[in-house]
What does this fold into?
Amino acid sequence: MNHLKNSIEIRRKVGYLPGEFSIYPNLTGSQILTFFSNIKNIFDETYVNVLAEKLQIDLNQKFGTLSQGNKQKIGIIQALMHKPELIILDEPTNGIDPLVRNEFYEIISDLKDENRTIFFSSHNISEVEKLCDQIGIIREGKLIAMEKISELKSKQIQIFEIEFSKILPQKKDFTFPNIENIEINNQILRFTVIGNPTNIIKKISEFEIKKLTTHEPSLEGIFMTYYGN
Amino acid sequence: MQNLFQKTLLDHKKGLMFWGLGIIATDLMIASFFPTVKKMPELMDQYVEALPKEISIWFGDLSSIGTPEGFLNVELFSFMFPFAFIAYSITVGTNIIAGEEKNKTIDILISNPINRSNLIIQKFLAMSTLITIFCIIAWIGFIFALPIMKVNLFNLAQMCVNLALIAIFFGSIAILIGSITGKTGISTGISGGIAFITFLINGLVKLSTDFEPIKYISPFFYYSDSNALINGLNVIHLLTLVSSIVLIIYLSIYFYKDRDLGV
It folds into this structure.
């Protein structure tokens, strides 16, 4: 479809929630949704009520009197009410409390299961990890990376935490190309290893170790390791 | 709430009520002065003759102030009603287009399946409907005033048509400026400025025949020249105003259609 010629048709298939959802303060939630459903020419009252119930929002209150989180819920319903093929949500969970947030995640998962495409922007990486299959990273308005979450997570990144008993190594002892974020604090050495850690383990074995732990970082950790700089 | 047109009308329902009451109150108040003016024809003639031309030009045909139509022309339709209605139409014209951008509601509105031409047309029709309702209210107000001032209601209706057109004209200018700039202040300022300047032109050209040709650029000429309250509507003038409004709305759509709304 041509985005100029078929603009109306395309917008009928899109559900959009802007970062700052602002709409007529003198209308109630219900009036706002009826207004948009008339523009979209589709109104599934049952689905609207299901969404309103899950998101715990009273549709009879005037928009202007609602809290930030409740305004956002109206915005979410407005974006999803016509079950669009493409859903674009910009920071949808802003101001929404954690319990309702979980309900929202369920709604999004259901839509994913129905094979709808969802563009979801968020600063909350744990929420991205929970909901998304693929991640794009935008820095200063430019898309700097695009990867599948499963691929990003499968990258060999490990965080090492080693407590030494006697002689503490220096940072310069660990100047390997596959080491990042190295820090020494209270006899404990911490660093992140990208890729195969064999060379580092050999070096560590030269010192007397009291305790060694490793763990995989969260998606946020992986993200910061790759794109933090 | 069916569509943008109805929503725009409903947004102004409170204003409609207050303005409506205000218009009827003004009709009745002005009409209540008429018996006094009518009782003192000589005094009024002296008063009219004493007025310098520089002042009398702003009040229409003062010589007929002793008739109900002449009195309404001077008291209401040459200054008070046009400016009140124009002020209202500019406010509405500004709010319905530039206001959506100021309040950031345009973002979500145009992400929905509505095209921009349709948006301008629906909002223009809503504004025109509001102004027409006010003009009908102004006309109805004089039905209540008939016991004290017997005005020709048919001619009055024609004058109200003129009033509606001049108000819709400036409301459309506000829509056009809002479509081009998206700024409420600029839209109100420029539309109000144009109204004021063209009103001045329409008055000042009467002071000297040298300026005569300029009068055609003022929409107030097409509003007032035919003296619709006494002579009825001038079809050419009416069509000039109507076609100007159509042109302004066409230009609004032209500029709004492809403008980057920053959303």
Summary: DSSP finds 13 helices and no strands in chain B. The interface with chain A takes residues 1-4, 7, 11, 103-105, 107-108, 111-115, 263 of chain B (CB under 8 Å).
